[in-house]
Specification:
- The protein is of the alpha/beta class.
- It has one domain (4-274): TIM Barrel (Alpha-Beta Barrel), CATH 3.20.20.140.
- Helix content is 35%, strand content 17%.
- It has 9 helices and 9 strands.
- It has a 9-stranded mixed beta sheet.
- A hairpin with a 2-residue loop joins β8 (261-266) and β9 (269-274).
- α5 runs parallel beside α7.
- The model has no long low-confidence stretch (mean pLDDT 94).
């Protein structure tokens, strides 16, 4: 089966080394159906030494340039390229975020949490003086409140991002429905009732600091029970080699959790395709 990768970063994101052309070429070489280029917009990033946002006009012009250059191959294969953004939600920056994204025409908008209490968990200091329950629940609380306020998005990005870099020991590294259901339930219900989706972000389930976070399938099953009909797959690739990484594996997980379809977005409208494994 062919897949669509909804979450990728080009050199328009300051933490990526991948050109737009290299991402598209990699996805095509892997026989994928399509790709969305979703660069970072984290305005007011408090703990970064560089600006974490981009110029959508320049990004979209580059996507147009590359797709025109590759037009014969794209037309022959039916490959699709979508223009997107990953918005980093922060309570103090919501008006700036709304004003920014309203100016541009995107196919795909991902809403994510990268900063909580003024710190990105990636930097490590976020976890200082917090036990794992406090560190995880704080993030989920901010995720719910900011998503509820923003609303203008299609995909909730890596809901378990905070677990990816956590320093805690065995039994304290994963966001599970059993332990964090009180925080997860409102998020899942809101997404399902608003017709939005969540992603399986395959980058999360890699080795980070000697530990591989676990995807709790109970979270996906609960999302399905709330009426969600499809999931998004995203590699969160910052280099072309990771495009579509382990999509077949996690599509099978989605199917086991009751989902029959995956989804991508074109002009902000969901495009469904059947999980055929």
């Amino acid at each position: 089966m062919k897949f669509f990768d909804n979450h990728n970063h080009s050199t328009f994101s300051p933490d990526s080394t991948a050109s737009v052309q290299s991402l598209i070429a990699s996805a095509m070489a892997k026989g994928m159906w399509g790709i969305a280029i979703t660069d970072h917009y984290d305005i007011d990033a408090p703990s970064r030494d560089q600006e974490f946002f981009f110029d959508p006009i320049k990004q979209q012009a580059e996507i147009d340039r590359v797709t025109l250059e590759l037009a014969p191959q794209i037309q022959q294969s039916g490959f699709q390229v979508m223009k997107g953004i990953e918005v980093g939600l922060q309570p103090a920056s919501m008006e700036k975020i709304k004003a920014f994204t309203a100016q541009y025409n995107f196919d795909t908008v991902i809403a994510s949490i990268h900063f909580v209490d003024g710190t990105d968990p990636y930097m490590g200091t976020y976890y200082t003086d917090k036990d794992y329950r406090k560190a995880f629940s704080n993030t989920l609380e901010v995720m719910y409140s900011t998503a509820l306020e923003y609303r203008d998005f299609d995909i909730l990005g890596h809901y378990d991002y905070v677990a990816r870099y956590s320093p805690y020991g065995p039994g304290c590294r994963d966001i599970t429905m059993a332990e964090f259901g009180d925080w997860l339930e409102p998020i899942l219900k809101f997404l399902a009732h608003e017709g939005k989706t969540m992603e399986i972000n395959t980058k999360t389930y890699k080795n980070h600091k000697g530990y591989v976070p676990v995807l709790d399938t109970a979270v996906l099953k609960r999302f399905r029970e709330f009426g969600a009909d499809a999931l998004s797959l995203g590699s969160d690739a910052h280099n072309p080699d990771r495009i579509g990484d382990e999509f077949a594996k996690y599509a099978a997980v989605a199917k086991e959790c009751g989902f029959r379809y995956l989804v991508y977005f074109k002009e902000r409208k969901p495009q469904y395709y059947k999980i055929d494994l």
